[in-house]
Amino acid sequence: MFTSALSRSKCEDLVPASHTTYAPFVKKVEYQCMDVDEDGFLSVMDAEGNTRDDLKIPDMMPMPPPDADVLSKRIRDLLAEEKEFSIVVQMACGIEQVMDTKTLLSN
């Protein structure tokens, strides 16, 4: 039994011991979130200062993940409050998806 990295659904796979089973390579990256446009694209920056504008906010994705509305509201609220925060993005099987937020501590 395993939990899908992106959809968070539980799956069971029965494989005989004589067979090879494959597991996806999952990568987790954090980006500082700067803005979201009216089309639902997030403006984010990585640790090296490179920006990208091609990640969709979860509730605007073609197949929204579970709790997408709650996570998207949290992102919009943090942006409205002008708080510094990062988003956690998981990548697997050619799909990138925002999974969580982390509020950055200010000194």
Characterize the structure shown.
The chain is mostly beta strands. It is built from one helix and seven strands; from the N terminus they run E-E-E-E-E-H-E-E.
Salient structural properties:
7 strands, mainly beta, five-stranded antiparallel sheet, 107 residues, 12% helix, 1 helix, single chain
Task: Walk me through the topology.
Elements: E1 2-3, E2 10-11, E3 27-36, E4 41-45, E5 51-56, H1 68-80, E6 85-92, E7 95-103
Antiparallel strand pairs: 1-2, 3-4, 3-6, 4-5, 6-7
Which class of secondary structure composition applies to the elements?
A: mainly beta
Strand/helix succession: EEEEEHEE
Please give the oligomerization state of what you see. Answer: single chain
The total strand number stands at 7
Chain-averaged pLDDT: 87
Instruction: Tell the overall outline.
Output: elongated
Helix percentage range: 10-25%
Offer a concise description of the structure.
The chain is mainly beta and 107 residues long. It has one helix spanning 68-80, and strands at 2-3, 10-11, 27-36, 41-45, 51-56, 85-92, 95-103.
